[in-house]
């Protein structure tokens, strides 16, 4: 397979620097992305990506991404969370749970994952997820830079549905948006779910076969 592997911390740092630069000011916190990949490397996971031409066209692929804030929980918000029965976060990597929940919901097995955009954490996070779940990570993304809204992702241009969209928060609460009349509504529903805890959610959508992705 035509692939590239990040073999050491220097490789990871160079990768983070590159996707952050190409993100042109968006795409998430590079410190978070660096933390994800350095830990994965230290824990023995293989961080690599593969050209789409090398992947079986019948494999299922989807786009995992984070939505919401990564800021520390404020005292005021912590009080609100405790009132809802939420203590310290229990899910370290909600993207992983989101992938697993999508597979369970659709009764399929994803063969590959792809990043939605270039950026400091929104490219490394799906790579980390793919490595930990032993899935292929595709050399490519849906924007070529960071984008502020889902509606700017290239599958939207081809009218590919993002639904079902699975959202998992830091406490393991799972929401599935099965269908929506347009991409804007998906964005609004997603952000309303994020607002419940004011913390990030791990999400996955744009489920399709590799042959559709091409």
UniProtKB/TrEMBL annotation:
It holds the Pfam family S-Me-THD_N. InterPro entries: S-Me-THD_N, S-Me-THD_N_sf. Residues 10-178 form the S-Me-THD N-terminal domain. Gene3D superfamilies: CV3147-like domain (3.40.1610.10). This is S-Me-THD N-terminal domain-containing protein. It comes from marine sediment metagenome.
């Amino acid at each position: 397979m035509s692939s590239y592997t990040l073999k050491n911390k220097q490789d990871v740092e160079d990768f983070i620097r590159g996707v952050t630069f190409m993100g042109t000011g968006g795409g998430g916190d590079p410190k978070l992305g660096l933390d994800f990949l350095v830990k994965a490397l230290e824990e023995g996971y293989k961080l690599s990506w593969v050209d789409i031409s090398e992947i079986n066209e019948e494999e299922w692929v989807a786009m995992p991404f984070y939505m919401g804030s990564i800021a520390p929980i404020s005292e005021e918000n912590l009080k609100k969370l405790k009132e809802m029965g939420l203590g310290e976060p229990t899910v370290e990597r909600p993207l992983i749970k989101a992938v697993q929940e999508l597979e369970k919901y659709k009764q399929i097995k994803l063969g590959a994952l792809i990043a939605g955009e270039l950026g400091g954490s929104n490219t490394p996070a799906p790579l980390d997820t793919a490595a930990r779940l032993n899935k292929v990570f595709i050399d490519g993304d849906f924007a070529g830079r960071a984008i502020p809204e889902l509606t700017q992702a290239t599958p939207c241009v081809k009218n590919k549905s993002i639904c079902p969209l699975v959202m998992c928060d830091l406490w393991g609460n799972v929401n599935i948006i099965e269908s929506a009349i347009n991409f804007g509504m998906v964005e609004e529903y997603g952000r309303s779910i994020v607002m419940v805890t004011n913390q990030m959610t791990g999400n996955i959508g744009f489920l399709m076969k590799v042959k559709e992705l091409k």
